[in-house]
Design brief:
Blueprint: E1 4-9, E2 14-27, E3 30-34, E4 41-45, E5 48-54, E6 59-64, E7 67-72, E8 75-79, E9 83-86, H1 89-132
Parallel strand pairs: 1-8
Antiparallel strand pairs: 1-2, 2-3, 2-5, 4-7, 5-6, 6-9, 7-8
C-alpha cells in the first residue's frame, strides 16, 4: 500500500511523519485533501489547522502560521514559520494557548526594554542639551 510522507519544515527543525494515508489542508481556494499518488502540487497554505490520518487509523493534528505545501512523488513538504503538532485536537488547543502566552510574555518584555531604552535616550538628550546649549 502506498503512503504519504510528510516533512514539517519550520526553519529550526524538520519533523518527518511517515505512513500517512491522507492529509487535509487549506489554501486560498479552500480546504483540500491529498492521498498517495496525488499529482504534483505547490500551493500557499492558509494559517490554520491541518490533519493527517495514518494508515493504522491514528490522526495527527497540526496548526501552522501559513506557508507553502509542496507535494511530489508521495512526499509532502509543509514549510511554515511555526508548527504545533499533537495527536488529539484538545492537546493542540492547549499547546496553542501555551504558545500564545509565551509570545505575549515575550512581547511584553520587548515593550519594557523599548520603554527603558526610550527613557534612557530622552535622559541623555536632555543632559546633552543642557551641556551644549546653556
Amino acid at each position: 500500500m502506498s503512503t504519504l510522507t510528510i516533512e514539517l519544515l519550520d526553519g529550526r527543525s524538520v519533523e518527518r511523519l511517515e505512513g500517512i494515508a491522507s492529509l487535509v489542508a487549506e489554501d486560498p481556494t479552500g480546504q483540500f485533501g491529498l492521498l498517495p499518488g496525488h499529482e504534483a502540487l505547490i500551493t500557499a497554505l492558509q494559517p490554520g489547522l491541518l490533519r493527517c490520518r495514518f494508515v493504522d487509523g491514528r490522526w495527527r493534528y497540526l496548526a501552522c502560521s501559513g506557508g507553502a505545501l509542496v507535494c511530489r512523488h508521495d512526499l509532502v513538504q509543509l514549510v511554515s514559520a511555526r508548527f504545533v503538532s499533537a495527536e488529539h485536537d484538545d492537546q493542540l488547543t492547549a499547546q496553542l494557548e501555551q504558545l500564545l502566552q509565551r509570545e505575549q510574555g515575550a512581547r511584553s518584555a520587548d515593550q519594557q526594554a523599548r520603554d527603558e531604552l526610550e527613557r534612557a535616550l530622552i535622559k541623555r538628550l536632555r543632559e546633552w542639551s543642557e551641556t551644549h546649549h546653556p
